[in-house]
Structure formats: C-alpha cells, structure tokens
Amino acid sequence: MGLSNYYKVGGSLNANHRTYVVRKADIQIFELLKAREYCFVFNSRQMGKSSLRVQTIKKLRTAGIKCASIDLTIIGSHASAEKWYKGFANQLLSSFEIDDIDFNAWWLQHNSSTEVQRLNLLLESLLLEKFSSQVIIFIDEIDSLIKSKFKDDFFALIRACYNLRAESPKYERLTFCLLGVATPGDLIQERERTPFNIGSSIELTGFSFAEAKDALIPGLAHKVEQPEAVLQDVLNWTAGQPFLTQKLCSLIVQQTEDSYSNVNELVENYIIQNWEAQDEPEHLRTIRDRILRNEQKAGRLLGLYQQVLHSSQGVIIDGSQEQTELRLSGLVVKQDGYLKVYNFIYKAVFNQQWLRQELDKLRPYSEAINNWLNFQQDPSWLLRGKALDEALLWAVGKSLSNLDYEFLQESQKVATELQIEVNQKLASASQKLTKANLTVKQKLADANKKAKYIVWIGGSIAAILILLSVIVGQNQLQTAKEATKLTQVGYNAAQQFQSKQLEGLLLAMKAGEDLKHLVKNQSSLGEYQTITPLSTLLNILVNIHEYNQFDTGQITLNNLAFSPDDKIIASGSDDGTIKLWHQNGTAIATILGHKDKIRSLNFSPNGKIIASASQDGTIKLWQRNGTLIKTLLGHQSWVISAIFSFDNTIVSASKDGTVKLWQSDGTLIQTIPLKSNAITSATISPNGKIIAVGNEEGNIELWKSNGTFIKTIGGHKGWVTSISFSPDGENIASGSDDKTIKLWKADGTSSGIIQGHTARINTVSFSHDGKIIASGSSDQTVKIWQLNGTLINTFIGHSD
C-alpha cells in the first residue's frame, strides 16, 4: 500500500488495515464477549463501530470462538416479517458456514411455527447442537430495523435467549453483540413488554494522541516535517473523531510540499468553507440531517444545542431523551458529566449563524422571539391575538426548546392577565348597566309629572332643537355609523365564537376597546350608542371552555395529577421526567430520577407527597417542591400504578403479578399475589377496603386490602385501561381499548355499558357527587356522561 492511499476515508477498515487505531473499547469488548457477556455498541455514525466489529471478530476467532456477523442493511427493512426472518436465518447459517442442510426445506418444514419460533428453533437445534464451543452473533446496523413493526419481537427473542441461561446451560454458550445508532430503549418499545435491560454498553471515544500515533504518523512521516506535531494539530481540530481524523490526514497527504502550509488552512479551505458542497464522503450533512429529520423534535434538539453552544462549561447530563438523541447525532459528546460540542470543526460549521437560520426555518414566530431575546425579554415582543393562537397550534405535538416554551408561556400569561382584566371591567360594566336601568326608570316617573309643563313650552323648545340639530347632525351621523359598525363586529365575534373560541374572544375584546374610544367619558351604559360588543364579550367569558393551555416540553405526556387543593399540577412523561406546575401554567420544578417511562402519578390526601410509579420497577415519593423523599424497591417488573388510600397507605400494582401495600414512610406492609401478571391498571376504593386490578384479558380482579380474594369480573373484549370507584365506593367504572365504558356494582355485578367513543378509552373518572362520568379517549375527545349512558357534552381540544 503506497503512502498516497495510506489513509481510508469512510467505510469499515479491514482486519489488517494499518491505520486502525486501537482504543480502550477494543480491549473492553473483547474481554466482555470472551467472558460471555452480551454487549451493545450504540453510538453516532462514523465512529468506527463496524471497524471495531471486524477487529474483534478476528481476535475472537483466533481464540477459538465461533463468530457470525450480520449486517441488517443487507436484509432490508421493508420486507415482510416472514421474508425478513428467513433472510436473517439464511445469513446466520451462511456466516457460520453451515451448508450441510437444505435450508429452504428446513424452513418450510416448520411453517406451522411463527417466525420468532422458527428462528429460536434454528438457534437451539442447529447452532448450539452443531457447535460445542462458545458462539457469538454480531448484529450491525440495528437502527435499520427500529421502524419495522416486528422489531420488538426480534429483540425480545434476544432478551429471552439471555434469560434462558438460567434454565438451559447450552444458552450460556450463546452471546449477542448489537451495534448501531440507537439506545436500549429503542429496541423494545411496547409498554407492555419488559424493556431491553441486559448487556454491557461499550462506549466509543475519540482517538487520543497516544492511541493514534503508531497507526497514523507513518502516513505523514514522508510528507511533512514534524509529523508528531502535525498529528497533534489534527487531533486538536477533530478531537479524535475517527472519520474526520482520517479525512484530515488524507488531505495533508494529498497536498504537494509547495501548496501545503498548515492544518488550520486545510481545515478552513477544504472542510469548513462551503461545507455542504465539500462534504464528500458525506459526514457533516449526516449530522445535520439526523438533527433536522423530525420536525416535531428538531426545535427541541436545536434548543438544547443552543444551550451547549452558549455555555463554556457545557450542559449538565441528565439522561433525557433529547440529550441522548443529540449525542447520537454525533454533534455533542459526554465529557466530565457535561454535554459539549465534540470538536472545533463541528463548532465552526454548526455555529450560531447556522443555528439561527435553522431555528428561523422552524418557528412561525422567529422574528418575535429573537427580538424578545435581544431586547432583554421586553414584553412588547410577546405574541398576542391571532399570532399567539397560530403559534400554539403550530407547537402542538412538537418538542421545543426551553426558551420556546418560556416565550410561549409568557405570551399566554399576558393573554390570561388581559382576560382577567376584561372580565373585571365587564363585571363593573354590568353593575353600571343595572344602576343605569334603575336611573332610567326613575327619570321616566319624573317625566310623567312634568309632562304638562313641557307641553306648553314645547313649541319654543322645538324651534331651538331644530337649530341645534343642524349644528350637531353631522357628528351624530358619524357616531351612529361607528356604533352600527361595532354592533356588526359584536355579532361577528359571537358567530366566530361558535367554532373558534379564542379568536371570537379576541375579536370581541377589540370591539370593546373601540367602543371605549367612541363613548369617551360617558359613565352610564344607558348613554352608550351600542352595548352589543360588551354583551357579546360578557357572553363569551361566561361560556368559554378553554381557560388556559401550556406545553410541558416532555416527549410523550402520559400522566397528569392535581393536588387536592388544585394549586399544583404534576405531569409525567415517557422520558422518565416529572414536571410540577402552578395552575396558571408557571413551571415549579423538573424532577429527574426515574430511568424509564412514568406510569402513574398521585398526590397524598393531604397533598404533601407525590408518588410516582415507573417502568424502571420503582416507586418514588417526592415533596411537592420536587425533593426526593424515598425510593420504594420490591417489585420485580414495571410498576403500573401507585395510589394513596384515605389513610395515606400506598397501594402499588406491578407486572410482576403482585399488589403491594406500603406505609407512607416506605415500609412494606403486605404483598398480594394476583391471579394474572398482565396488569394494565389498578385503583383502590375511597374507604381503602377494596382493590380493583385490570388486566390484558379484559378482566378485573377484586381483592380486599387484607389480601382476601373476592372475585374476577369480566366483560371487556380488550385491555382494561382505567378503573375508577365512585366517591361513595358503591360503583365502579372501567374503560378499555375495546372503546367501551362498563359500570359495575362494588360486588362485581354489571350495571351498564356506555358506548360512543371511536377509539380506545384511556381514562374514566367519576364526578365528586358520583352522578357524572368523564372519559378521555384516543379519538381526541373528552366526553361527559350520565350514569345511564346519556351523553351530556363532548370536548375536543387535544391532539392525542
């Protein structure tokens, strides 16, 4: 190999390539796999994952270990499940060089089994029976499978192989190593399954000078003076990022001695300037596209990157979903507990100007928020009226930056304050109208007494009035025209309110403001040329449903709880975060602590403690300011719910098939083993005597709180997603993904069914008097029902 092609830019390095740089990860993955530990290498693109795989397989085979390597991009991600599994199995046999069986005949012979069962049978009866030594299967580019419908089954099979080690010794010899741009949470996403929580993570870092010098300096030695210093300059720019390091070394080699000056000029001229056109093989554009590929998440990622870029120290790592996603783009790296821009090349390319341009493309309110930030958050730049409505509509379903949420929340706050001010003015105006009516009645009575007197002087006064009417006629005509116009605007606002409540409110508020200028200093409503704008505005404020809206910024909001005094709202998310809010939408705190999705949030009866249940198998107790009190450990799988009883006893239900009762200080009182472990929902009666637990079979198990089983009631044709007791404890309502609500007596006797939703029921709840039921559904509606199933009202306002 000549020096002109000493370096390789892009693609995997073969097992004998001289520029392969041995890192800490090489030693770590070899030792772990040799010790039969499952491993996964999840990192951004072009960090050397595939080259690491090639080198590791070479060393393992030298040690006598059987290895197979499968690149999932070769199989494709758009095939049917049957074709995909068959392709994977065929690749597996080919990689192990097993050619003494008729694969097509074998596959057809087992066509009565599912694809997962056939693949498992192949692993057990062919591979593990044929090889008595250790077997390692490397699966690369797993991110190509993430969007397929059957990927949860595939990765669940790998997890099952790990669990089978406890039952079958031969599975001790089978090990998997997964590689790709993903996270463990991406592999199994169905909330009812056990997450992919096995194996050891292998972290790929940039080359250090000590690691890189032996492999990379030989290519520079005959081209530049002081090759060690030049390599150090290269690493200063790239921070050891493998692709960029190879590319920059290759650029240096390609320059003649006359044209080469220094590394800085090369970086500026051949990488940074006009980078989108010069980015071959593609690298920087891959990072850009990874960040911008999802419009719903792009704003949040750019906002996070903005924080990283602004801070000299970086952003503290909190394990959030957006931080993980930004790291997988390759743009930032974890360093000493902080997120920092990976290297100076990225910082120069993805700079403030680029960031501003991309944010401006996303936001419909870019000019307003930029001016708000540039002018020390001057309130005059906040959104109002239609602009605020459009911004809030645009923000629905998107994950935005903290600055975006702060800007929108401040805009909403001002709008809310304006609503309150108008409401107060209208209340005052209503009082004045009542007083004016009384005054008019009194004046009419006085007028009757003076009628005769007015008659005999009427002729003289009439002559004077005619003269005055000529003088003021033009002013009255103009005023009358304005009054007519405002009357029509009032009618228009009332009409618009029927379909667009906020826009109707804003139009009525504008008409009221215009009326204020028209009536000037008139203090009596009886003297107003028109009161239609005021009456319309008063009617809207009385009937408007939407009081306030605010966006939590959490990836997928799945739980909401109000404190008993209604002053605090707690929201839980799939990203494991809990956020606390004042009722007006002002943020109190963001709580970090859970490592997986939040499944349940509840306040204690006195409102001082919040209990959160998570798929990480824990229950955490928090003060209402977000301070952790205690973590309750004991469940062996997802905790579906954690509810307070009237006496502050905590009742938790888990997919491990148990219900546990705890004291409020975290002391375990009792464990109740359930009939089914496919738990989906749970609750406790107001008096704390009965526990109701719903499951995937559509059944509800009723238990006494002392652990005595009462009965199982069935009737739903799908999962029981929500259960609620009436305040008196006499009735139970259950919602299901069969789109129905069923009513039961406390003893389990069926008392009715309510139908009307067009998608799964997510939540059901009784009113305080027990006479009304509210249900929320994936059909994007909230419906209010009488107990006999009569629909009272339907509210539409959520995207999910």
TrEMBL record:
Against SMART domains, the record matches this protein to: WD40
Highest taxon of the source? Bacteria
Work out whether the entry's keyword set contains Hydrolase: no
Q: Which Pfam families would you find in this protein's record?
A: AAA_35, WD40
The alphabetical list of record keywords is:
Membrane, Repeat, Transmembrane, Transmembrane helix, WD repeat
InterPro entries according to UniProt: P-loop_NTPase, WD40/YVTN_repeat-like_dom_sf, WD40_PAC1, WD40_repeat_dom_sf, WD40_rpt
Where do the TM regions start and end? 453-472
Keyword Ion transport belongs to the record = no
From the UniProt record, list the WD repeat ranges.
550-581, 591-623, 632-663, 672-704, 713-745, 754-788
Q: What is this protein called?
A: WD repeat-containing protein
Q: Name its species.
A: Nostoc commune NIES-4072
